[in-house]
Amino acid sequence: MSEQSHNAANRTSAGGDAYNRLLEENKLLRAVFDQLPSELVVVTPDIRYLLVNKAAVKDDEIREWMIGRSDQEFWERKNRSSELSVKRREGCLEVIRTQSDLQFEESFHVGTPQEKHYVRLHRPNLNGTEQPYIIIYGQEITELKKSEEQLKAQNIELEKVNHELDQFVYSASHNLRAPLLSVKGLLGLMEDEEMEAPARQRFIDEIYKSIQRLDATIKDIIDYSKNARLELLPTPIDLEQLVRNTHEDLKFYEGITVSLEIITRQTSVFYSDERRLNSIIHNIMSNSVKYSDPSKEHCMLSVEIEVIRETCKLVFTDNGKGISQDNQHRVFDMFYRGTTERSGSGLGLYIVKEMTERIGGSIELKSELGKGTTLKLILPNIIDQTTA
C-alpha cells in the first residue's frame, strides 16, 4: 500500500472512530435526557418540536412523531384543550419577545382524585447556542400543592384556636370571677348581726345560685377541654334511652317542666362516642328547658331519631321563646349568651357544635322568635367493622 493510501486509510479509520464516539455520546445524552424526572422540551421560535423527553410525553410513537411538527399539529392529534395550547404558545412568544424567563402553573382535573398541578418554565435560549431555541421545563408539584393547602388549613385552624384561646381566657375569667365577687359581697352583707332571718335566707339563696353558676361554668370548661384532648371511643348507644334519661335528669331543672315526645325510626345499631353524645344531648335539652316559654299552656320538646347503617339524624324541636333572626348566626360562638334572663356560661351550644364536628357530624339551627327552635344533627354511624 502506498504511503498516500495508508494515510487515507488512517484518516478514514480515525473518522470512523470519531463518528462512533459521537454516536455513543449521542446515545448517552439521549438516555440521560429521557431519564430526567422533569419534563423537558426544546422548540423553535415558530413552535416546532426539536427534542422531547419521556417525562414530557410517555408514548414513544407520539414522541417520535412530534419531532419537526408544530404545536398545533400536536394538540390536534391529542384532541386537547385549545385554551391550554394557546397559553403555552403565548408563553413561547413572550419569552422570545422579552428574552427573559416565564414561569407559570397549570392545573388539571381540579377537585377530582386525578387532580394534578405543574409548574412550567419557558427559557428563551440554550446555553452555548446562538439560535433562539426555547427550552420548556415542566415539574409536577401536586404533592407540594397539597402540602401547601394543608399548611394553609392548619394556619387557619391555628388562627381560630388562638382567637378562641384569647376569647376563652377573657370570658372564662369573667364568668368565674363574677359569681365569686357576688358571694364575697353577699357574705359581707351577712356579717350584719342585726340582719333579720328572711333577709339572711334570701342572701343565702343568692349565694347558692352564684355557686351553681360557678359550678356550671367549670363543668363546661372541663367538657370543652376533654373534647379537644380525648380520642373517639365508639360504642353502641341506645339513643332513645339516652334522651329519656336526660329528660329525667332535667325534670326539676330551673323549676320548669317540659313534656317530651320521641319518634324513633331505626334499622341499624348506632355507634358513636357516648361521652360526647351525652354532653351534646344534655346541652340541647337543658336549653329547651332553660329557654322554654312560661306563657304557653304546654312546654313541649319533640325529639326525632332516625338511624340507618351509615348515619343518624337527630332533630330537637321545642316551642320555647325562640331566637331572633339577628342573633341566630352567633348562637354557636364561644361564650355567646342571647339573654341575661337566665344564668349560663355561654359555652353550651359552642360545645355542642365542637363535639358534633369532632365526631364527624354537622348541626343546623332554625328558630323563630316566640315560636320555638329546631336543632338538626347529622351524625356518622361509626360502626366497628370487626363486630358489625
Could you characterize the architecture of this molecule?
This protein is α+β, with helices and mostly antiparallel strands. The chain is built from nine helices and twelve strands. The chain has a five-stranded antiparallel sheet with strand order 2-1-5-4-3. A five-stranded mixed sheet has the order 7-9-10-12-11, covered by helices on one side. The protein has a two-stranded antiparallel sheet with strand order 6-8. Helix 6 (197-229) runs parallel beside helix 9 (348-358), helix 7 (239-249) packs across helix 8 (274-290) and helix 8 runs antiparallel to helix 9 (348-358). The longest helix is centred in the middle third of the chain and has 49 residues, at 142-190. It is elongated, with a radius of gyration of 37 Å. The mean pLDDT is 82.
